[in-house]
Design goal:
CATH topology of the domain at 2-12 and 38-81 in chain B: Mth169, Chain: A
Largest sheet of chain B: 4 strands, antiparallel
CATH class of the domain at 2-12 and 38-81 in chain B: Alpha Beta
Radius of gyration of chain A: 16 Å
Strand content of chain B: 15-25%
Distance between the termini of chain A: 18 Å
Strand order of the largest sheet of chain B: 2-1-3-4
Order of helices and strands of chain A: EHEEHEHEEEEHEEEH
Shape of chain A: globular
Helix content of chain A: 10-25%
CATH topology of chain A: Rossmann fold
Order of helices and strands of chain B: EHEHEE
CATH class of chain A: Alpha Beta
Largest sheet of chain A: 7 strands, mixed
Number of helices of chain A: 5
Strand order of the largest sheet of chain A: 3-4-11-10-9-6-7
Number of domains of chain A: 1
Structural class of chain B: alpha+beta
Structural class of chain A: alpha/beta
Distance between the termini of chain B: 43 Å
CATH superfamily of the domain at 2-12 and 38-81 in chain B: Phosphoribosylformylglycinamidine synthase subunit PurS
Number of helices of chain B: 2
Oligomer: heterodimer
CATH superfamily of chain A: Class I glutamine amidotransferase (GATase) domain
Shape of chain B: elongated
Chain lengths: 234, 99
């Protein structure tokens, strides 16, 4: 798909460490991806999507993502999200979004207590979200995870509601759950479908040199959706 | 006024740290039913007004010190547990610890 390069800033918290990978991947896929320091109070003009990258914001103190959500930029991100703006949280970014209440559930230490770092199969449950349009139904993507606190949790009642509304968009392939997440959840969207959080790192799987290009399906979908949202405004 | 906030994983929440501690204690020869690992936060407040302190602490817990979905809390003021403040650790789903 061709067209203007949509602006998809990558937020940088103290301790973020995947921001450059995310930036590079997004730019490779046709976006402009300025990195935005967390003390900014506004997103760049013409922002069409936001990425919260992986890392260890604020040293994972207290709980992963618990401090970062109070960063000045998060107020702007929350407003952007409530206006329907596209927000993608990867790993630590996912943790920040759950702590901020923008996504359901919570992320706990891995059941194994071990840091996991490996490629995992990720099954796409829905292809009608802005983050999965490039995927095919039930497609199995190979994307790496690398985290110590990726055990997504929701109680039974919450889980049932999420299942019913189709918010559990990404799941680990059968028998490949790396962290003990409830219902094998690897990624979840908010009720409106414009905010996605996932533990796997699509930005680390966008080049054959990295072993997989499947992450481009997710990030490319985001770039497509961001481009469409810009086009809709013109 | 000195306050202590005790944060615990709610019952039913998988607590791998607690499991590791539990198993290590058994290795040492202790008889242990179970162990759960939480967090302790000491807070010094510039007030001697108990009601004001408790009100502030409750809000601190809701907004930052705990994640209400997975954690409960109890408060001590000057070393004494405050009755009725602890957020009841409601069970959340099936006990998954033994899985």
């Amino acid at each position: 798909m061709t067209g203007p390069r949509p602006v998809i800033p990558v937020v940088v918290f103290p301790g973020s460490n995947d921001d450059r990978d995310a930036q590079r991947a997004l730019e490779q896929l046709g976006a402009q991806a300025p990195r935005v320091w967390h003390t900014e109070v506004e997103l760049p003009r013409e922002t069409a999507g936001v990425v919260l990258p992986g890392g260890f914001s604020y040293g994972d103190y207290l709980r992963c993502g618990a401090i970062a959500r109070f960063s000045p930029i998060m107020r702007a991100v929350a407003e952007f999200a409530s206006d329907g703006g596209l927000v993608l949280g990867i790993c630590n970014g996912f943790q920040v979004l759950t702590e901020a209440g923008l996504l359901p559930g919570a992320l706990r230490p891995n059941a194994s207590l071990s840091f996991v770092c490996r490629d995992v199969p990720v099954v796409v449950e829905r292809t009608d979200t802005p983050f999965t349009t490039r995927c095919t139904p039930r497609q199995e993507l190979t994307i790496p995870v690398k985290h110590g606190d990726g055990c997504w949790f929701a109680d039974e009642e919450l889980l049932a509601g999420l299942e019913e509304r189709g918010q559990l968009v990404l799941r680990y392939g059968e028998g490949a759950n790396p962290n003990g997440a409830v219902a094998d959840v690897a990624g979840v969207v908010n009720e409106n479908g414009n905010v996605l959080g996932l533990m796997p790192h699509p930005e680390h799987a966008v080049d054959p040199l990295l072993g997989s290009v499947d992450g481009a399906q997710i990030l490319g979908s985001l770039v497509d959706a961001a481009r469409l949202s810009v086009a809709a405004l013109v | 006024m000195k306050a202590t906030v005790l944060v615990r994983p709610k019952p039913g929440i998988l607590d791998p740290q607690g499991q590791a501690v539990e198993s290590s204690l058994r290795h040492l020869g202790f008889e242990v039913g179970s162990a759960r690992v939480g967090r302790l936060v000491d807070v010094e407040l510039p007030t001697e007004d108990r009601a004001a302190a408790l009100d502030a602490l409750g809000r601190m817990c809701e907004q930052l010190l705990t994640n209400p979905l997975i954690e409960s809390y109890a408060i001590e003021l000057d070393g004494v547990p405050v009755e009725g403040v602890a957020v009841a650790p409601t069970a959340v789903g099936p006990e998954s610890d033994g899985a």
